[in-house]
Design brief:
Elements (H helix, E strand, L loop, with lengths): L2 H18 L9 H24 L5 H35 L28 H9 L4 H8 L8 E5 L7 H14 L7 E6 L8 H10 L4 E6 L13 H19 L7 E7 L1 H9 L4 H6 L4 E5 L5 H9 L4 E4 L16 E4 L5 H4 L32 H10 L18 H11 L8 H21 L1
Parallel strand pairs: 1-3, 2-3, 2-4, 4-5, 5-7, 6-7
Helix pairs in contact: 1-2, 5-15, 6-8, 7-14, 8-9
Length: 444
């Protein structure tokens, strides 16, 4: 009997099955949890069979069969993966019917006089441009008329063949739209598909009554978990854009305040583009930064350490500090205690994370009975990531990787925006209604 493989297989399979039945950061669909438990049971059975009887077949024949299956599966998997990726890229290039026509405002990319071909901004670019806040919305929320039309510039990965060419188009568009005449300029780093969250930008557009310009330059068309290999290219894109802005702003008699925003993979990308922290913020003239839901890992930990002398990390608006009479931090992080994307890192496979320390208070939405087991907890958190962004239009939940319920207050604080009286309540209502209306357009 092969005692060690038998013991190892049974123990790990049983442990994984046990943990799969226990609380995790995100609720799993019933069928998923059942499938994981079932897979663990199969592992125990197969390991026992191998250890006791070698699958009841001579080992060379078994190994040859497994090798053949592996080759066939590998070739088939590669071909299937290529087909899936091609399909996702096509989907990213295909615009929604509701946004097939380019917006007509001269303050948006793709207007009649634009340097940009609207057909190249992709699905996410079109959504971002069409979600710009109107003058009527600004007045409804703030009680005051808009002082300018918000500027939004979006350059798709298909808009030009190289990083520098895409950045050159972005700069030309900023010039054409009058972006440098605004009081505030925001650089938003998109996620892998080109997704640039319009909600935080809408917050700034409303509270500054339109006196703001936003620019986003895309680097891909695939979902973030399939775009991790593009982080260097994406960081190169953001660094080139910041360098071009730095050169332009140096020529202006009155420069706008420069802010940066990154969410999820977009946060990782921007942090990679300015790895030195405050020295890079100074070099690029960045006045404030907000990063939301940064994927966990060594790079994130190092960057947090680099900016720890003047940064704030909050899980929710209730944790925002009272800065009356105090210096305002330049760097802000919004990271949920229970966000598996923030917590997912290889290290938790072999080392207990601080957020699961026995006897210590648990963060919000971290189940009290969730425990750490080497290897197994990492797998559990990995599965959690697939259910971390289960959002419903207009139903803002401050949970997992869904930060919509927090953005109004946190963006206001991080960027030091004016929002007194009952404006925050009206702003929150507007953001929810805008998302529902956009979802209805997409559904139609």
């Amino acid at each position: 009997m092969r005692k060690f493989p038998l013991l190892a297989g049974v123990v790990t399979g049983a442990a994984a099955g046990y943990l799969a039945s226990k609380p995790s950061l995100m609720p799993w669909p019933t069928q998923v949890r059942a499938a994981v438990i079932g897979a663990c049971a199969v592992k125990v059975g197969v390991t026992t069979a191998w250890a006791v009887g070698g699958f009841w077949l001579p080992r060379p024949r078994v190994l040859a069969g497994l090798a053949g299956v592996g080759v066939v599966a590998g070739v088939g998997g590669t071909l299937a993966a290529r087909k899936v990726l091609a399909g996702l890229a096509t989907k990213g290039r295909t615009m929604d019917t509701a946004f097939a026509q380019e917006p007509m405002s001269a303050h948006l990319s793709t207007a009649t006089s634009s340097w940009l071909d609207y057909r190249t901004v992709g699905r996410e670019g079109a959504r971002f441009l069409h979600s710009v806040v109107s003058a009527e919305d600004i007045e409804q929320v703030t009680g005051q008329p808009a002082v300018a039309e918000p500027v939004r510039v979006f350059v798709g990965v298909a808009s030009a063949p190289t990083v520098q060419a895409r950045v050159d188009i972005a700069m030309a568009e900023l010039e054409r739209t009058g972006a440098f005449e605004r009081s505030t300029l925001i650089v938003e780093a998109p996620a892998g598909t080109g997704y640039a969250n319009p909600t935080p930008i809408s917050v700034v557009e409303v509270l500054l009554r339109g006196d703001v310009a936003t620019v986003a330059v895309s680097y891909g068309l695939l979902p973030s978990f399939l775009s991790l290999g593009k982080v260097p290219l994406a960081a190169q894109t953001q660094a080139a854009l910041l360098a071009a802005l730095r050169a332009k702003l140096a020529t202006l008699p009155r420069r706008p305040r420069l802010l940066v925003y990154g969410e999820s993979l977009g946060a990782r990308v921007l942090q990679t583009a300015i790895p030195a922290g405050f020295p890079d913020l100074d070099i690029n003239g960045i006045d404030g930064a907000l990063w939301v839901g940064t994927p966990g890992g060594k790079l994130s930990d190092v960057f947090h350490a680099e900016v720890s002398s003047s940064s704030v990390t909050v899980d929710r608006p209730e944790q925002l500090p009272d800065l009356t009479g105090k210096p305002r931090p330049r760097v802000w992080f919004l990271e949920h205690d229970g966000d598996p994307i923030v917590h997912n890192r290889p290290r938790i496979a072999v080392q207990r994370p601080a957020w699961l320390t026995p006897g210590e208070p648990r963060g919000r939405n971290v189940p009290p009975k969730m425990s750490w087991v080497p290897g197994i907890t990492w797998l559990q958190v990995l599965i959690d990531t697939f259910f971390a962004s289960n959002v419903k239009p207009g139903l803002f939940e401050s949970r997992g990787h869904d930060y919509r319920a927090d953005l109004g207050a946190v963006v206001t604080a991080a960027y030091d925006l004016p929002a007194g009286g009952d404006i925050p309540a009206r702003l929150e209502e507007f953001l929810r209604k805008a998302e529902v209306a956009r979802a209805a357009q997409l559904g139609a």
